[in-house]
Amino acid sequence: MPVKSVDKETDTIWLASQVSYGLMIGDRYFVQNLLAELDAPGEWYLDRDEAKLYFWPPTDLTSGEVSAAVAESLVVAEGAAGVTMRG
Questions:
Q1: Maximum CA pair distance of the chain?
Q2: Which residues are registered as beta bridge partners of 46?
Q3: Dihedrals φ, ψ of 36, to 5°?
Q4: How far apart are CA 84 and CA 59, in angstroms?
Q5: Distances (CA, A) of 73 to 70, 76, 77
Q6: What's the chain's Rg over C-alpha atoms?
Q7: For all residues of the chain together, what is the average pLDDT?
Q8: How confident is the model at residue 67 (pLDDT cuts 50, 70, 90)?
């Protein structure tokens, strides 16, 4: 669920749209793709507006070489009908 805004003074988060399930105080929730939460090896943050990827490598990169695979599409289904994808 995309976040619309955050008020740090009141510790309040506003969501960008309605949810189809109950959100209860005290329940656990996880926030993804938030630069402030980049705090452990193996984590990353993608700033789409700036086209920047922030990455904390899981191991030391003393070799100085980093590579990343990029795919235009993960799945392409041209002319498909009745397709269900899970997992």
A1: 51
A2: 53
A3: -65, -20
A4: 37
A5: 9, 7, 10
A6: 18
A7: 85
A8: confident
E strands, 1-87, where?
A: 3-7, 12-15, 44-47, 52-55
Residues making up the chain, counted from first to last: 87
Say how far apart CA 56 and CA 60 lie, in whole Å: 10
* Cβ 1 vs Cβ 17: under 8 Å: yes
pLDDT band at 70 (very low <50, low <70, confident <90, very high): confident
What's the whole-model pTM score? 0.49
Q: Which of 72, 73, 75, 70 is nearest to 86 (CA)?
A: 75
